[in-house]
Write a structure and sequence with these properties.
homodimer; Arc Repressor Mutant, subunit A; Tetracycline Repressor, domain 2; 2 domains; 11 helices; DNA-binding
Chain lengths: 204, 204
DNA sequence: GTCTATAGCCAGATAGAC
DNA sequence: GTCTATCTGGCTATAGAC
């Protein structure tokens, strides 16, 4: 069993770079700070990753590839609508409580560089909207849920799950919650969010 | 009546700085780029605003002060819950379609500098959660809406309205929408969002 | 692989003429 | 108020010893 100290230099760099880039973004991050964080010499960063840009891309792609497959289960998996909503909300919130800076980091850099998305998404299993659209249409027709566009429902699911992490400082300010109180609200959202969505779309 | 060209140098700088900072963020922005955008000499930036930091703060506070009062109407205004949800969703989405980079800019910088919030919010009319909490409790007691915590409802309202702008590149990638198609979805959200929320909380 | 030293560049800020 | 020229510091990246 490995201790933390037994990580290779390359791994230490990647972990440190992750922390710094997530906090400061590409342009705000400093190679020296990453080196300090990793407790290694600055020139080793270049030895292993050649340039800041390449190190950044390694970090970004790793981060994005943790997020995208989770979202993709909404679009392409054989769960029922209700299961998708419940499972995604629970799993995503659980995961993000452990990595709260991840959504902000990814969306920040995607907004700076929007054409990046295509490259990232098209390289993976192509997330077609078709299956999900059909699933929603069928459920509407069968009278299981009220009429709603698949795209709008999809946006709503993402919004309710992702925003609480990106908007944390703003929300905390308005509701005047401490970090601890806010964490409790997030914990409750593991079930709160799916209840909210299902209540909105189900026919009674 | 003034033409655009009749703006003072100070105004031209502020407008240009707004555009550049919103796109690049504090650390990514360049004073030279702001000067070019404003079509003035770079040293005038320092003449009017002393430093990049002060120019940034001027831009940021202006932006934040456009956003905060809108949010505050949810917490403190004498509208009914239903009116609040409908009006806020419609007004906010309409406004943000005209300023799509604003939410990302503000949340980005708040995440980098979370203690900034206190300073910004406490200087305005103090947005107490109390009124809104009471309003929700009353509505629940009167059987108008199902049981829900005011904080969670507040987060949901913000999430559904704000996220579509911050998450645009990500969403566009997943649902494979062009800019034009996405704009249409946003237009629909002016009423879609409030329907979604009200459907979730109203008792039938 | 890991270090020190430094090249080379670029950005923010200022001096000073007009 | 507006310009040109320049200082100064900090940052990425590399050269080269070990």
């Amino acid at each position: 069993m490995n201790k933390i100290k037994d990580l290779t230099a390359e791994e230490k760099i990647l972990n440190a770079a992750k922390r710094v880039f997530e906090n400061k973004g590409m342009s705000g991050a400093r190679m020296q700070e990453i080196a300090d964080e990793a407790k290694i010499n600055k020139s080793l960063l270049h030895y292993y990753y050649r340039s800041k840009q390449l190190l950044f891309e390694a970090v970004f792609k790793t981060a994005f590839n943790k997020l995208a497959p989770q979202i993709n289960t909404i679009l392409n998996s054989d769960q029922s609508i209700c299961e998708k909503i419940k499972n995604f909300s629970h799993n995503y919130t659980t995961f993000m409580i452990k990595h709260p800076y991840l959504p902000n980091f990814i969306l920040q850099e995607l907004n700076r560089n929007p054409e990046f998305v295509k490259e990232l998404i098209s390289s993976k299993t192509f997330p077609s909207m078709k299956n999900f659209q059909q699933q929603i249409r069928d459920a509407v027709k069968e009278g299981k849920i009220r009429s709603i566009k698949a795209e709008q429902l999809f946006i709503n699911i993402l919004a309710l799950n992702i925003f609480p992490f990106i908007g944390a400082p703003l929300i905390k300010g308005f509701i005047n919650a401490s970090d601890k109180e806010y964490l409790l609200l997030l914990e409750q959202r593991k079930t709160e969010v799916s209840d909210f969505i299902i209540n909105s779309i189900k026919l009674k």
